Amino acid sequence: MSIIIKTEEQIKGIRKSSKLAGEILIYISDFVKEGISTGYLDQLIHNYTIAHNAIPATLNYSGFPKSCCISLNEVVCHGIPSEDIILKNGDILNIDVTTILDGYFGDTSKMYIIGEPSDTALKLVKATKHCLDLGIEQVKPGNYLGNIGYSISKYATSQGFSVVYEFCGHGVGIEFHEDPQVDHASRKNSGPLLKPGMIFTIEPMINEGRPRVKVDETDGWTARTIDLKLSAQFEHTVLVTDTGYEVLTDVSNEY
User: Fold this and answer.
1) What are 148-171's pLDDT values in tens digits?
2) What is the CATH class of 8-247?
3) Using only C-alpha atoms, what is the Rg of the chain?
4) Nearest to 129 by CA among 150, 114, 105, 112
5) Cα distances (Å, whole numbers) of residue 202 to 65, 89, 227, 247
6) Is pLDDT at 1 greater than 80 in this prediction?
7) DSSP letters along 48-113, please?
8) Is the separation of the CB atoms in 224 and 211 below 8 Å?
9) Sequence-separated (6 or more) residues with CB below 8 Å from residue 212
10) Contact 155, 127 (CB under 8 A)
11) Which pTM does this prediction carry?
């Protein structure tokens, strides 16, 4: 494992790209409504990204055909936006954007709710957001990376949900995906020690039912829960500072 400790110049660039990624999720929220297609949302995100002198990192990444991932209901991650997928009342969806600005990457995602969700869907979304918050709280110099996943999995299972282990968070900033791998279900006090200058995503994927996923054979990307029950995800890009953390994709001053 070769974890890049970012320089001050690199941190500045990654912070700027991450800020744009966070702003995109706020911008798109006004358009996430019943009757709108996920393909339309993708086009808006593409246009907004280009208008701000950035590049959508997912577009043509290993053949991915769109400028963001939009994962609806039982889709865990890597959902491909389409004009044929129309949002309806009760849907929950994750929109995941990664920007490349001046060569630096910023990666974030959040959940959106259409109309009136089921009680289970609402509980799942709230629990997943809390999982992200708990994971971020573990980010500080000298702590073990594994304590992020330990705290996430402990809470998720206490709420009756399961943690996806087939996908994980990752180092980011200079490349789209770097070391370390940030697992969301880990043993306590496992993994490398966190050091100032590390930047990685925390992006727990929490399932209503079983933790396993199955990738659609038709497109090679869309990962669904194996039992077709709901899934939710939130993601931030986080910097380890000298005293704790900075959430680079947080543009709402939540942290």
Assistant:
1) 999 999 999 999 999 999 999 999
2) alpha beta
3) 17
4) 112
5) 24, 29, 25, 10
6) no
7) HHHHTT-EETTTTGGG--SSSEEEETTEEE-PPP-TT-B--TT-EEEEEEEEEETTEEEEEEEEEE
8) no
9) 166, 225, 226
10) yes
11) 0.97
Return the ∠ at Cα 227 (arms to 74 and 202), rounded to 5°. 50
* Residue 136 to residue 255: CA distance in whole angstroms: 9
Residue 184, token pair as written in the block: 């969301």
CB-CB contact of 39 with 82 (8 Å): yes
Strand ordering across the sheet containing 236-240: 178-182, 169-171, 199-202, 236-240, 245-247
- For 168, phi and psi rounded to 5 degrees? -150, 175
Report residue 29 as tokens: 């929220």
CB atoms within 10 A of CB 168: 20
- Contact at 8 Å (CB) between 48 and 67? no
Domain ranges of the chain: 8-247
Q: Are 46 and 59 in contact (CB under 8 A)?
A: yes
Would you tell me how many other CB atoms lie within 10 Å of the CB of residue 223?
22
* DSSP code, position 118: -
CA angle (103, 111, 238) in 5-degree steps? 40
CA-based nearest residue to 66, from 35, 23, 97: 97
Rounded to whole angstroms, how far apart are CA atoms 41 and 175? 25
Q: Alpha-carbon distance 127 to 111, whole Å?
A: 12
Mean pLDDT (whole number) for 117-127: 98
Residue 122 structure tokens: 């609402």
| Token output for 163 | 């943690």
